[in-house]
Design a protein that fits this description.
Layout lengths: L1 H10 L18 H22 L8 H23 L1 H11 L3 H23 L18 E3 L10 E2 L2 E3 L15 H37 L1 H16 L2 H11 L4 H11 L2 H15 L2 H8 L4 H12 L1 H24 L10 H8 L8 H28 L8
Antiparallel strand pairs: 1-3, 2-3
Helix pairs in contact: 2-3, 3-6, 4-15, 5-6, 5-15, 6-7, 6-9, 6-10, 6-12, 6-13, 6-15, 7-10, 8-9, 11-12, 13-14, 13-15, 14-15
Membrane topology: Multi-pass membrane protein
Family: Belongs to the binding-protein-dependent transport system permease family.
Subcellular location: Cell membrane
Length: 385
């Protein structure tokens, strides 16, 4: 309960806690001003790219990924930096789970490599002269179909640092494919999560606060949406249009928030009866202000935990569709590489195994981090406060 009180106190900022040096001349905080300027610049850049250039300089998926990064900066990183004491408290609880700490470091490396790696290295290209090249740490029988770019000795073909993780059947470097696959996985996981969490939180808190007819209408719509086969809709859309990562993200993002809405509604219904909500209503605060300043901050712990656990499921969705050949073949993906190597497991096992290992550990790491965040952020969880 003590941790719960601290969470509520930090979520609803008191008058004496306000740093007035951090407030702009028009009554806006620095974060609000920076968010407004960044949002305006982002909107101008998108409009320029869409309407004033013949060919889009940046794809729709990359624009959404940039928006997701901005949201992470202003709604995750900035608040954590502002509330250092609360952040330190949560970190002490989180680091008790060593597996989660190691997983978080691994995910940070994957995120950095996936975000900036494709900007620094060229996209993998066909090179039939380097087909089936083994990884640098491996030697294979030269009788196995391979051009043996590395040194051949005593009937063995040795790997080379030019292709440190080997190559596929068409000569593409697996190391580069893995890096580009990191970007695809991060884009699918983070962008779809942002869409799902944003819509689900708004719908869930609105349903809980207004109750009555509004609650009934919103929840019945959620029931209908959750019974709709999103997978078949994705198949139909990819049949009618060219398959792309953007379509996958938007379809599953805008149709996959029902479970989050129900989870948030359940939590918000408990908060709806708290005394500070009633006090705000009696003081004449607007419904939107109460939802934005009281309900949403006090369900944020539940939302953050759910968001972390959602990401691996979306990554697996994309890998599954790529494995089945239902995504853009020109976009390197872990699932796509695994599919290309499934017929060579006996002679060139590294083609399917290496990206499969990265996929496995990425999904596992998100699950570890999600479990640790749930224990750290939920004051009702077991453990010392």
């Amino acid at each position: 309960m003590a941790a719960d009180t601290r969470s509520e106190t930090a979520a609803t900022e008191r008058f004496e806690d306000v740093d007035w040096n951090d407030v702009g001349g028009l009554g806006f905080t620095r974060r609000t001003l920076a968010l407004g300027v960044s949002s305006l610049a982002y909107a101008v850049a998108v409009l320029y790219d869409v309407f004033l250039t013949e060919d889009a300089l940046i794809s729709g998926t990359n624009w959404l990924f940039l928006l997701t990064l901005l949201a992470g900066v202003f709604f995750v990183a900035w608040p954590l930096a502002d509330n250092r004491r609360l952040t330190a408290y949560y970190w002490r609880r989180f680091k008790k789970n060593r597996a989660a700490v190691i997983s978080a470091i691994y995910l940070l490396v994957v995120f950095v490599l996936g975000t900036f790696g494709p900007m620094l290295i060229a996209k993998p290209e066909l090179n039939v002269l380097a087909a089936y090249q083994p990884p640098v740490f491996l030697s294979v029988d030269s009788s196995v179909p391979t051009s043996c770019v590395g040194q051949a000795a005593e009937g063995l073909c040795h790997g080379t640092w030019k292709y440190p993780l080997g190559t596929t059947s068409d000569g593409k470097g697996i190391a580069r494919l893995v890096v580009f696959g990191m970007r695809v996985s991060m884009q699918v996981g983070l962008i779809t999560m942002l869409i799902v969490i944003s819509i689900g939180t708004v719908v869930g808190t609105s349903a809980a606060y207004f109750s009555g007819l509004v609650d009934e209408l919103l929840m019945r719509y959620v029931d209908i949406q959750q019974t709709f086969p999103t997978f078949f809709l994705f198949l139909i859309v990819t049949y009618l249009f060219k398959p792309s990562l953007f379509l996958l993200i938007t379809i599953f993002g805008f149709l996959g928030w029902g479970g989050i809405a129900r989870l948030v509604r359940s939590e918000a219904l408990q908060r709806r009866e708290e005394s500070y909500i009633q006090a705000a209503e009696n003081a004449g605060a607007s419904d939107g202000w109460i939802i934005r300043r009281h309900l949403m901050p006090n369900v944020s712990n539940t939302v953050i935990t759910a968001a972390t656990l959602l990401i691996p499921s979306f990554i697996l969705f994309e890998a599954t569709f790529a494995f089945l050949g239902l995504t853009d073949p020109s976009t390197p993906s872990w699932g796509q590489v695994i599919s290309s190597g499934r017929g060579d497991l006996d002679s060139a096992w590294w083609i399917a195994t290496i990206p499969g290992v990265f996929l496995f550990f990425t999904v596992l790491a998100f699950n570890f981090v999600g479990d640790a965040l749930r224990d750290a952020l939920d004051p009702r969880s077991e453990g010392d406060a």
